Amino acid sequence: MFSMSSSRLVYAQQDAAADAIASAKQQIVVCYQAAAQAERAGANVTSLTFALNEAGVLLSKAELAYSKSDFSASGDFAVQSRERLSGFVDEAAELKTAGELMRDTDFLINVVGSTMGTFIVVVVGIRVWFFLKRRYGRVEGHAIEVARV
Q: What is the C-alpha radius of gyration for the chain, rounded to an integer number of angstroms?
C-alpha cells in the first residue's frame, strides 16, 4: 500500500513538473515574439534579451532535473523561469511603443530637416546669384580688361 501511494506521488510530481516545463516553454515563446516585435519597431531590447536568457537557463535546469527524475527541482526551476518573465510582455509593449514613437520622430526630423536644408540652399543660391549679377552683370559699355601674363 505504501509503495502504491508513493508511486502515485511520484507520478503526480512528474506530471506537475512536465506541465510546469511546458508552461514555461510556452511563456518563453510568447515573450520571444513580443521582444521580436519590439525590436522590429526599433526598440532597444537588451533588457528583454537578458531576461529571456535568464529564463532559458532556468528552463534548461528544469529539463535537466526532469531528465534525472528530480521532479521537485524540475518544477521549481520551471516556475522560476516563468516568474522571471512576469511583466515581460507589458515591458516589451512599452518598448515597442517607445521605439515606434522614436522612429516616427526621427522620420519627421529627417523630412523637415531635409526640406529646410534644401530651401536654405536654394534661397542662398538665388541671393548669391542676384548679388553676383548686380555686381558683375552691369558692365554696360565698359570694356573689361583682362591682365595677361
A: 35
